[in-house]
Amino acid sequence: MKTVYEFIKKCGVYYLATVEGDQPRVRPFGTIDLFEDKLYIQTGKKKPVADQMKANPKVEISGMAGGKWIRVTAEAVLDERIEAQAHMLDAYPDLKAMYQPGDGNTEVYYLKNATAQICTFTEPPVVIEF
Q1: Which domain does 49 fall in, by range?
Q2: What percent of the chain is predicted at pLDDT more than 90?
Q3: Based on the number of CB atoms within 10 Å of its own CB, is 18 exposed (0-12), middle (13-18) or buried (19 or more)?
Q4: pLDDT tens sequence across 97-111
Q5: Average pLDDT, the chain
Q6: What is the pLDDT of residues 19-63, one digit of tens each?
Q7: Which of 19, 44, 67, 122 is spaced 20 to 30 A from 105 at the CA atom?
Q8: CATH number at residue 14
Q9: Which are the contacts of 65, defined by CB distance < 8 A and separation ≥ 6?
Q10: What are the beta bridge partners of residue 27?
Q11: Could you give the CA distance from residue 24 to residue 17 in angstroms, rounded to a whole number?
Q12: Are 84 and 35 in contact, with CB atoms under 8 Å apart?
């Protein structure tokens, strides 16, 4: 999992795919955090992506760094604990202008039943399950 975290961190921006009804939705994300041996992402409760993950927790993440790309397939699980929110926001202090732990808007999700593939055009994929 640490390899996945470090790769996504190197991407800077990655893309999170969700489903809304029968329509795929993809948007750029920039938050990734390791907390209590789980990989976390963050968004606002008021955003459509939060509603999409609650209705259908299956997500995919994709990003590129250093001539390689990653694809992570997982289930997003809402963690409502203030400690998880605080850990994420401490990792991304610029977000504190918009989000605060326990503000009723900050939401963090950990990824479970995840499979990551790190790929290139010339090497076999590296597969990591967590």
Answers
A1: 2-129
A2: 100
A3: buried
A4: 999 999 999 999 999
A5: 97
A6: 999 999 999 999 999 999 999 999 999 999 999 999 999 999 999
A7: 19
A8: 2.30.110.10
A9: 7, 10, 11, 12
A10: 16
A11: 7
A12: yes
